[in-house]
Design a protein that fits this description.
mainly alpha; two-stranded antiparallel sheet; 20 helices; globular
Amino acid sequence: MKKIARYSILILVVSVSFLFSPGPKNKKDYCGIYIKLSSHIGFTFNCDAGEFCTNARTPSKVLEDNAARQSRPLFILIASAIGHPIQWLTEQLNLPLFKSMEPNPTIYVGYYIAYILINFITLLFSLLLFDSIAIYFSGGNISNWMLFTFQLLLTSNEITKTFFWTAHQQFFSIFTPLLTIWLSIIIIQKKYTLADISGFSLLCGILMLMYGNFPPMFLCLLLIAYLTDKQIRKLHLVKNISLFLLPSLLWMSICIYKNGHYYNHEIEIHRQLIWIVDALKISNVIFHIQLLKNIYLYSFTFKEILIFISISICALIYMKIKINLTGDKEKTRVMIIITAIIYFLFFMFLGFYMERLTYTLLPICLCAILFCVYQFKQLQKYRGLYVILSILWHLYTMLSYGPFT
């Protein structure tokens, strides 16, 4: 309970501080509505937030023909389950804040609050996962100040700044890679093989109905489990793939039964991953040209986290040169590298590039840096410096202009 209270306070302090960040100077810098709470305080009501709230109020809308959130029904259902009692309560209280709103927005207040609660809970679980990972990396010998340093870096970033106070799914960019590493540690500790991870495969499949960045998690877990005995038994591989696909196939069947077809907004509009098939249908040359264009676009999304990527790569290389790791420690180092490569490649081939998506690599980098720190005792002496640097990073993130969407 102490950890939950401590991390809750951290989330609230950081997220409230972002309300004081500089507001947008012109309309082209954001999508949605910038809500001013005072002359120096405000947040962005993202352009997707209204649709999220409408769907939470009436979940059956995701079954409508060409519904943009049709591929993410579980996220909508959870928001609806949390939002309905909150909406009822706001109507009973009838506070001046709600009276002052237009008749239409008032019926969505409870669902908007629900999404903010989901943001809070997702970030809280992310911090708890990182706490467990940090204890494993340090052998249970991590100081509160060292942990605070990394938790602040994990909390204070563009994802929290842009999306905490609005309805969106972007906090899975922080949660998913941490869940991947946490489950991988379990696989390493218990020496699970492909035959033992059926539950993890099904979990990945279910979570696919929440957000679309769980395929790399599934691939990571498959590969880590394979490295336990380095034997591929087709039956076990087919079983895990089937369990991963099962929830999506069941949901697609329901949509086809209702509408005659299944609609995936990410594929139909943004051609995520499917651009590869589109390009290859034309020619191999077109595919390679498009791939180079995509890599070029992808490279521009690393601006804010490039420093963390550089530090983690240098740290892993230096550790490999200086220390001969064995047993679970070596498996952990390999696991971190595998996770980083798979997520990096997944987003490189996605075909839709935004900085907020690339932030998925930040938690992996922080895990890599922390792991390296606890392989060198001399690096653990500079706790005060780490704390100062993390606070400076938060101030930089808070005071910098944007992003807003």
